[in-house]
Amino acid sequence: MKKGLCVFYLLTVFCLLLFPVPSHADQQQKEKELDEQIRLQEHNYKKLESQMKNVNSKIRASRKKEKNVTQQLTYLAKKVVLTQQKTNIVTAKIQKTENNIVVTKSNIAELERQIIRDKKLLRARLINIYKHAQLADIDLLLSTKGTHDAMENVHLLEKIARQDQELITTLGEKTRRLGVSKHRLEQENSNLKVQHEDLRQQNIQLQADTKEKNRVLAQVQHDKKLYLAELDEIKKAQRELDNTVQRLIRQKKALIAARAKKSGGVAQPETRYYTGGRLNWPCQGRISSQYGTRTHPVLKVKRQHTGLDIAAPKGTPVKAALAGEVLFTGWQRGYGNVIMVDHGGDMITVYGHLSRILVSEGQKVTASTTIGLVGSTGMSTGNHLHFEVRINGKAKDPLSYLR
Which tens digits make up the pLDDT trace of 371-392? Predict the structure, then answer.
């Protein structure tokens, strides 16, 4: 009997000390990643919004003149990108809210399990105390073989009493936390409904904007005068892209020279990701337009195409063709959302018409890094990736470099 009581007390202490805390490291890491995506998409939105204001001011300034279809197309293309960016932000917030709901539900389930376990343990303790606590305590003390054993048993009884009190306190705290978590879950579910409605409205607007842009572009394709005006806009867009690439190259060289001067005239070697060989395909799809000169099938007008068009569904992941550093992200006239990656060795790759940009300038990427998603932003009527390879700023045939 005495030996059984000792075992009972020891097991009770062991159970009371055992309160495992669930780990949510994975969910917390995911939440940080979602926060970063929201920050990035909001940054891109502000950047595009600023550029949109410049486009609008140019359109207002030219309203007294004859209607310019290229300006109209630029405005519509820009409007589509801006609406798409709003959709990206709402989508990222929905992902974060859904992640919060998963974490909150997991916390609620764990707290409920702990509360049930603690209540069972407390109930067993109270029944035991009611039945024979005083007698059991006396028996335990009388069973000691000496002063040392008696002191240890007294210490054990005091520890059990403290643990009983801590169990009651902890049970109350967990019950309070459970109520808070359930209230938070209600709020997150409410937020999710609002965000889904916002996303629905943004998608309706996006479809309307895209339809209007495609209508004007279709009109251009069947009117030689308008088509020639579009070609002129494309040439301007290509020159603007050339100027952007050359400007970025100059800025990088100036930065390297400044670092060399700061370090006592010793130039730091450039990181060379490209040392020859083939590049990876940036996305899965079919080639819809080759590099080089192409002729309109009806109007018989020639135009120069500086890249490779890869048709793919909207949202198809776009990966860097090779390891490198993101040189530019943002809007480019005619090309919509654009990313440029510097691979060293005078090579830069360009990714245009993206529906979403997932990297930021200065970020290091590998050939497995998803940098964006296929879209139809800019002067484009269908979802595809415009991919360019530039050596020392000059456009080259991408097929000569792809695997």
Answer: 999 999 887 878 999 999 999 8
Single pTM value for the model: 0.56
Kindly list the distances between the CA atom of residue 224 and the CA atoms of 68, 300, 334, 381, in Å, as whole numbers in the listed order: 14, 9, 19, 18
Burial 108-138 (b: 16+ CB within 10 A, else e): bebbeebbeebeebbeebeeeeeeeeeebbe
Residue 87: closest CA among 213, 209, 215: 209
Place of tokens 């519509």: 76
CB contact set of 378 (below 8 Å; sequence gap of 6+): 77, 81, 237, 332, 333, 334, 335, 336, 337, 352, 353
Q: What is the 3-state secondary structure of the chain?
A: CHHHHHHHHHHHHHHHHCCCCCCCHHHHHHHHHHHHHHHHHHHHHHHHHHHHHHHHHHHHHCCCCCCCHHHHHHHHHHHHHHHHHHHHHHHHHHHHHHHHHHHHHHHHHHHHHHHHHHHHHHHHHHHHHHHHHHHHHHHHHHCCCCHHHHHHHHHHHHHHHHHHHHHHHHHHHHHHHHHHHHHHHHHHHHHHHHHHHHHHHHHHHHHHHHHHHHHHHHHHHCCHHHHHHHHHHHHHHHHHHHHHHHHHHHHHHHHHHHHHHHCCCCCCCCCCCCCCCCECCCCCCEEEECCEEEECCCCCCEEEECCEEEECCCCCEEECCCCEEEEEEEEECCCEEEEEEEEECCEEEEEEEECEECCCCCCEECCCCEEEECECCCCCCCCEEEEEEEECCEEECHHHCEC
CA distances from 27 to 23, 328, 330 (A): 9, 31, 30
Interatomic CA distance for residues 206 and 37, integer angstroms: 21
Contact 344, 378 (CB under 8 A): no
Q: What is the largest CA-CA distance in the chain?
A: 111
User: pLDDT by residue (tens digit) across 37-63?
Assistant: 777 777 766 766 665 565 555 545 444
Name the residue with higher pLDDT: 350 or 10. 350
Residues in CB range of 223: below 8 A, 6 or more apart: none
Mean pLDDT of 101-123: 83
